[in-house]
Amino acid sequence: MSTATPATAAPKRSFTASAAVYVNERTSLAGFVKELGRKAFPDHWSFLLGEVALFSFVVVFITGTFLTFFFQASMVEVHYDGSYVPLKGVEMSAAMASTLDISFDIRGGLFIRQMHHWAALLFVAAIGLHMLRIYFTGAFRKPREFNWLIGWVLFVLAMAEGFTGYSLPDDLLSGNGLRIIDGLIKGLPLIGTWTSFMLFGGEFPGTVIVGRLYSLHILLLPALVAIMIAIHLVLVVVHKHTQYAAPGKTQNNAVGPPILPAYAGKAGGFFFIVFGVLALIASFFTINPIWNYGPYDPSPVSAGTQPDWYIGFADGALRLVPPGWEFVLFDRTWSFNIIAPVAVIGIFLVLAIAYPFIEAWVKGDKREHHLADRPRNAPTRTAIGAAGVTFYAALWAAASSDIIATHFKLTMEGVIHAIQAILILGPFIAYFITKRIAIGLQKKDREIVLHGYESGRIVKLPGGEFIEVHQPLDEYDRWRLVSQESYEPLMLRPNAKGKITAGMRLRASLSRWFFEDRIAPVTKAELEQSKHDHH
Amino acid sequence: MNRSKPRRTGRRHPLATVALIALGLVFTGGGYAAFSSSTAQAETVANSQQTIDEGEKLFQANCATCHGTGAVGTDAGPSLVGVGAAAVDFQVGTGRMPMQMSGPQAQVKPVQFTDEQTKQLAYYVASLGPGPDIPSDHLSNGGGDAANGAELFRINCAMCHNVAGAGGALTEGKYAPPLTETSGVHIYEAMVTGPQNMPVFNDLNISPEDKRDIITYLKYVQDSTPVGGFELGSLGPVAEGLFIWIFGLGAIVAITVWITAKSN
């Protein structure tokens, strides 16, 4: 690399090399970069969903910082005096007035505000899709249980970030949302009223809530999200990424392009693509037009009041409660119309976080798993997932029951009753259909491995017999179809003390539920046998 | 570099054609507007005995089946004595009457009568008993205080019609219609007569000037260009959520597939 001066004998380094050496002599980063740069990252489109969430968060962070320059988190009453005519002179909080100023009087303000909000919606949506990918491919199994847990915490944190942000402008829509939260809290027995008064600094809406939510929204919650993301990513590096089974891709390796140089460039480019898509959406599509909603005032409530999509399932749960679940006992009102949906949501979230541990316990499987399952090869898990998605989707749809009613010309009551039925029956239907489909697909895979593809070529044998020639599978495709693990229901055997405990019985019955209906993977012997059978 | 002053070439400025076309459009448009408004005035129907007689004939032919001869009502339709000209002008003028079918509420459909016939019907019904009249132009054309109107709208109307006037659901299949294309006269008439499930907002409840302010606000919303881009039907978070899942995340997933497909 001696390019500069031929007079000196010592090899002259390029600028990049000297800079790298300079930095390395002061930080010893070389080892780290070497290690990280050679990390392989398996390539599949669904492995990029977590990155989408991360990149959306970066966009939210950048745009949010811009918004803090102009937003005033204060509920002091002011008279609006900005550009938007239908609100001129109207009394509102400084928070609302400054949000209107961001939208109408600060250059680029509306664009950044819309980008912030759209990116927030995409952030939570990408987390949701990422979680579904992890779930359905079983990527939460040992050693990745903690990362599932952290991901779950991130999902809840993202919802909290979203809700606190949505409530900041102090417009009519967000005020209605806060009122529902206030009602939820007040409906809880014993602690409800006290908690509400503590949160709002007195009776709703008070004069402090926007300031408090702002501190949470820009300080505590983003810090927690950032820490959790850091741990999440470190664990991904520690565990290595999962991969789908393919020739050369096994439990013990991670096959894919190394992070440096190409992959890092590609991921960096992908960030700008996500950024660009969000910028385009923010330029062309209105989000949360607070000027339509006007300032918050506890008396008006607009038709079609909904929270942002990720809180929709909670709003839907409230809408689906049948009337009359409220009674007076011990001189107290017990609002089961609120306690029940809160409990249902709580149980749903706890089941989601606990699932990896439950499944591992049921299987009694303590091995590490680095190959991502194809969803069909874990029919019961996939079916449980489908049931969960249906349950969540029913709650979610219920939040838009009024809009479904007006747009499809249905009755409000009919929509609610239909969704109530879907909420209860839908998960079971989804469970059975999904399980059948998964097992059917497994059967098809087995058939293909043993007998190959139908070629459509009919051959007449000398004896007059007609046969269809099956085209055998090549070894690469076969590998994908046969490399799966197989579980059988656990046998119920007495433990060391010669007893069968209730816990063991429960585990055995759950194991039977999981693995009773199973398609055994093709064994080597079967494969050999099938080769001899071929005509 | 030798800079020379732009010389006059004697040719027209390049924007002259554009200016000429703009001027022409302004004149034609302005002339058309002036002409059409003058014809509208000419067509205004006077509340005379002849009008009432014409209206009675139309009523007997088209409305009496349900509302009864003399509009006294039958089992199929209510009495119209005392509903006033405003009610008829609203129901017939928006196409709700004659009703197409029984249902939770009368549906909007293409208007069945000409403006003249509608007025004849209205004055006939008004002659049967005193009731609210068709509002004068200065009340229904806007021109009031939009900010006051917006506040009144949020307090009195938004719980059914949605805060952006996008409409909303009521019980048993009934609904509050969107106000995105409703004329000022019809909005005023709806407020004073309370059609379908709407309550009556009489002049003691909301004064005529306040009604004018509400109309001013709704006209502002109807006429203003959306500042933030496409409004997704002004349906709020439901439309936004569906949009980000289907188009936002859909586009991103398509891109992830493209990125990873390149390497394979």
UniProtKB/TrEMBL annotation, chain B:
Keywords associated with the record: Cell membrane, Electron transport, Heme, Iron, Membrane, Metal-binding, Repeat, Respiratory chain, Translocase, Transmembrane, Transmembrane helix, Transport
Catalytic activity: a quinol + 2 Fe(III)-[cytochrome c](out) = a quinone + 2 Fe(II)-[cytochrome c](out) + 2 H(+)(out)
Localization in the cell: Cell membrane
PANTHER family: CBB3-TYPE CYTOCHROME C OXIDASE SUBUNIT FIXP (PTHR33751), CYTOCHROME BC1 COMPLEX CYTOCHROME C SUBUNIT (PTHR33751:SF13)
All residue ranges annotated as the Cytochrome c domain in the record: 50-129, 144-222
Assembly notes: The cytochrome bc1 complex is composed of a cytochrome b (QcrB), the Rieske iron-sulfur protein (QcrA) and a diheme cytochrome c (QcrC) subunit.
Residues noted as binding heme c 1 in the record, renumbered to the chain: 63, 66-67
Keyword Iron: yes
One GO MF term: heme binding
UniProt modification remark: Binds 2 heme c groups covalently per subunit.
Entry's EC annotation: 7.1.1.8
TM spans (from-to): 242-261
Protein name as it appears in the record: Cytochrome bc1 complex cytochrome c subunit
InterPro entries: bc1_cytC-su, Cyt_c-like_dom, Cyt_c-like_dom_sf, Cytochrome_c_Oxidase_Subunit, TAT_signal
UniProt organism field: Agromyces seonyuensis
Binding site for heme c 2: 157, 160-161
Topological relation to the membrane, as annotated: Multi-pass membrane protein
Enzyme class: translocase
GO cellular component, one term: plasma membrane
Taxonomic lineage: Bacteria, Bacillati, Actinomycetota, Actinomycetes, Micrococcales
